[in-house]
Amino acid sequence: MAMTGTSPSRTAALKPGVVTGDDYRALVAACQDGGYALPAVNVIGTHSLNAVLESAARNRSDVIIQLSNGGARFFAGEGLKDAMQARILGAVSAAQHVHLVAAHYGVCVVLHTDHANRPLIPWVEGLVGHSEEHFRRTGRPLFSSHMLDLSEEPLDANLDECARILTRMAPLGMSLEIELGVTGGEEDGIGSEDLESADNAHLYTQPEDVLRAHERLSPIGHFSVAASFGNVHGVYAPGNVKLRPEILKASQELVAQRHGGGDTPVPLATDKPLSLVFHGGSGSDKDKIAEAVRYGVFKMNIDTDTQFAFAEAVGRFVMDNPKAFRHQIDPDSGKPYKKLYDPRKWVREGELGIAKRLDEAFADLGSAGRSLAGA
Ligand SMILES: [Zn+2]
């Protein structure tokens, strides 16, 4: 089913498990109407993935699970030689795991992939191919959405390619996340020195560009925008990041003003015509997060903070039990350490660290207790 035309029902319960197509749109609309957002958590293996599901379930929140290209490659295994094949297989493997277990956690899960620049388009297209095959068998795509990040290219080149890929995805009920403006920080190779000049225009998305994207893509299918409003990937010392969520508000207002009267192929039902995404959410001020959500952000990416939560918990366990990580049997007392070096013990500590950090994210984003999943 293509995601065009009438607005989906906003209150109906959804089936727990992976949501795609009209159900995905209903979930995005519920977030925007309800003034909350979902954390989008990067996973690299079943341990981090299960921790996300565990925390979502106990917080009664829906959640977005995503893979970067590197995370997908890691998921398939570092031993695989062909990197592009590993990126595709790892993402498919993660998606199949989620399809198998997510419903049993009783919440709705969006399956997504993170940044893909031009060299990574074959990764996205390879995954769309898997969704096409899944669609032929089940009537639904494997993934809910993918991201294409061509923000370093001229606007028209960016939108041309996004339109081409979305044209292939929309008939499957898939959504496309695009990026306009450049999110700072390590992930995109922009050094922290750029943060010194927060007026640097390329770090801020121009509302006129968002309007162009809306006019080009909304007739094709559902899309979302990762807008840059001073956000950065990674965590930096306080004071280095100047978030300006008012840029998001200006973009919503411009699009609503030009296309709010039903003159577009897809009439707008709300004052938030754009589905907005917040990258670089780790370490952000809570009041700025709340403001961004008020302006229609439905998804906030979290990676750095959950990486640290995992590492910190494992690190603490190792430091508390140093002998168990050097000897199978205590050289002095003869005591066996199997119960401590068993990976199910210390990897579990890491999982609990991730889940605990996400408890905070579900609260900050206002999604706790609001899962759309019915019985
Ligand atoms: Zn990002």
Explain how this protein is built.
The chain has 375 residues and is an alpha/beta fold. The protein has twelve helices and eleven strands. It has helices spanning 21-34, 46-58, 69-76, 83-105, 121-138, 155-169, 207-217, 246-259, 286-294, 304-320, 338-341, 343-364, and strands at 17-18, 38-42, 63-67, 108-113, 145-148, 175-180, 184-185, 223-227, 232-233, 276-278, 297-302. Strands 2-3-4-5-6-8-10-11 form an eight-stranded parallel beta barrel, surrounded by nine helices. Helix 10 (304-320) packs antiparallel against helix 12. Residues 1-10 and 188-199 have low confidence and may be disordered. It binds zinc ion (ZN).
Give the helices and strands, then pairings:
Elements (H helix, E strand, L loop, with lengths): L16 E2 L2 H14 L3 E5 L3 H13 L4 E5 L1 H8 L6 H23 L2 E6 L7 H18 L6 E4 L6 H15 L5 E6 L3 E2 L21 H11 L5 E5 L4 E2 L12 H14 L16 E3 L7 H9 L2 E6 L1 H17 L17 H4 L1 H22 L11
The structure holds zinc ion (ZN).
Zinc ion binds next to loops.
For the largest beta-sheet, the strand count, sense and barrel status come to: 8 strands, parallel, barrel
The structural domain count equals 1
- Described by the principal axes of the CA atoms, the overall outline is globular
In helices, the fraction of residues equals: 40-55%
Q: In what range is the share of β-strand residues?
A: 5-15%
Q: CATH fold name, please?
A: TIM Barrel
- Distance between the terminal alpha carbons, to the nearest Å? 25 Å
Reading side by side through the largest sheet, how are the strands ordered? 2-3-4-5-6-8-10-11
CATH class: Alpha Beta
CATH architecture: Alpha-Beta Barrel
What small molecules are bound in this structure? Answer: zinc ion
Order of helices and strands: EHEHEHHEHEHEEHEEHEHEHHH
Arithmetic mean pLDDT: 90
Low-confidence segments, given as residue ranges, are: 1-10, 188-199
The class by helix and strand makeup works out as alpha/beta
Looking at how many chains there are and whether they match, the oligomeric state comes to: single chain
Alpha-carbon Rg, integer: 21 Å
The CATH homologous superfamily name equals Aldolase class I
